[in-house]
Amino acid sequence: MNKGFTSKKLDSFFREYLDIEGFSSSDNSLNGIQVDNDGSDISKIAFAVDASLECFKRTKQAGAGMIFVHHGIFWGKCERLDNGLRERIKYLLDHNIALYGVHLPLDQHPSLGNNAVLAELLGIESPQPFGSHGGKKVGYMGKLIKPLTIEEAKNRISFMGRPPVGVYAFGKELNQTVAIVSGGAAMDALQAIEEGVDMYVTGEGSHSVYHHAMEMGLNILAGGHYSTEVWGVRKIMELCEKELNIETEFLDLPTGL
Questions:
Q1: Is the pTM of this model over 0.90?
Q2: Mean pLDDT per 10-residue run, the chain (257 residues)?
Q3: How many CB atoms are located within 10 Å of the residue 99 CB?
Q4: For the structural domain made of 107-229, what CATH number should be given?
């Protein structure tokens, strides 16, 4: 087992795979190191979807020196270090834990990202970019190798057998084409309608697109914001185990949303 890596070396490693600089002007998340440690070597990395105080406590319990998350704590503006945010940062500093966050670059990655894994689980043949966010397409779309019912699709993308937050069967019984954008991308259903796909897969539903989807015959599978975004962090975790020979642990803290 490797003795450890500094946070700076781990940052360089992650940037080799994730297009963090390419999203600097289109992603309001502060991608990369959000809270650093004191320079000590890190011999174990924890991975989770959300940067919460409970997540940080679990990181300490796991004996990890870094927590890699999809949803960090800094989003596009300076914030007051009070209340919950102060407590989170204080906990990280008190326990010398580095926080690393990657948002849209992890959604978009063609093999390690949330949407690429969902496309693979559903069986999309030759996925093509879909879902423009800030001028960059972060999702994928394409034809399924084998047509699926919305129920079959639900079962394929379910993490730990957890139910989706919404199933809106407005279209065909058998879906041949699918578009995917994980997480809170309900409004991209309008782009899915424009592309003429049979089904749109995302994390959350929205009242604003309900009637559009119903009238245009688009099936929507809202698999859950959390459950559609465990895949990328788990893929990065597997990459670290393989390439760095470093100890890792996935912290499963589902929100049910």
A1: yes
A2: 85 97 91 97 98 98 98 90 94 98 97 98 97 92 98 97 96 98 97 98 97 98 98 98 97 96
A3: 25
A4: 3.40.1390.30
